[in-house]
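Backbone geometry:
***
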Amino acid sequence: MGLLDSWRGRLLSPSTAKFWTLFWGGESYAGKPVTQETALNVSAFWSCVRLISETIGTLPLELYKKEKDGTRTLADDHSLYGILKDSPNADQTAVEYWEGQGAFLCLKGNGFSLKEQSGRRLVSLMPLPDCLPYRTPEGEKRYRFNERGKTEEVPEEKIFHVKGFGTDIDLGLSPVSYARHTLGEALAAADARGNVFANGMRAPGFFVMPPGVGTLDQEQRKQARKTLIEKFTGKDATGKAGILEGGVRWESTSMNFEDAQMVQHFAQNIEEVCRWMRVPPILAGHSPAGQTMWGTGVEQIILSWLVTGLRAYLKRIEAAVTKRLLLPEERKLYKAEFNIDALLRADSKTRAEIFARGVATSRWTPNEVRAMDNQPPLAGGDRLLAQGALVPLDALGAAASPEQQMRSAIVAMIATAVAEQEAARRGAQTMEHAE
């Protein structure tokens, strides 16, 4: 039985507290309520969500067509191509739309959009922030969402659903809900830190009167509060000093930052949030002890994140496009795929090495590489080249010119002479060891 079995066929509303706690947040051990909005007040969580969603939004999502010879070409004549890459709806660019879907996956574990169609042709995708699937008694999957204060209900084929990680067939699990105790702890720690600074960095405590004073009357309490407390509390009281007379002394009732290990706690909380979101802390702006923010090590961390962290989001979106946006008869001919090569644009050295290797191994023609780098084509640059002298692939079997034959003979002669000298040197060393 799935997690949603007990909710199927019911209209879910904000009053259905248990369900919303499971998927959208709730109370934490630290006593702080955690919702999508309050979770984003945690800087580490904001940074992780923004990194994932903005990276998804800035990657081009291409639609390819499989040709009969096994190759594939850009399907820029398909109606879905422009929706995926340029303008999903009348209000958003593709960057804004896919960035929003990435944020929904990070917050709710699900991304929903209403498919607007003209016949069978898809014309736009409108994001639905509040949408939920349910099952009818017959097992049919349907979706409910709020549109301008009115509850709408549509069949499954009208919704584009990108499902995040989870075991249920209808909904992905909400990261905010399952990480709410970590996020609540971070919110509580930030609240405690803020109170300390708001109080002029003074710890709470009590003024202890000397023996024999007895219980203060109402007027004495009022005067003591005015002279001992009000003057020296609040952020504007930082740096002020007072005088304790008549044996009055101060006793603090809380630990200071050092005793509470608040600095270490803040760092640990960042790492905990990053662990929930599968983002290396250094990419969220936190550099652990002994780790630099620059160099080849960081490049490897980024590549590792692309493989183990970001790739799962991209594949979920690609699979959802194939299953829920393409017509059944089109799924064998077309494939949506993110162009992750765009992530290498910031690393010119890596791009140059990839392009050079691609040309040398006959993967790309020079003009294909120039097109990837937004350069105009060159005459004669449409033929594949081979490693060596980088001659055209179709000219490898042609007879060599006299100049090429002479060059090959000289290279072979030099190589033979070097080999003979090396053999003689090794023979002399062997004789010396024998003596």
Observations:
- Residues 160 and 347 are 35 Å apart (CA to CA).
- The mean pLDDT is 77.
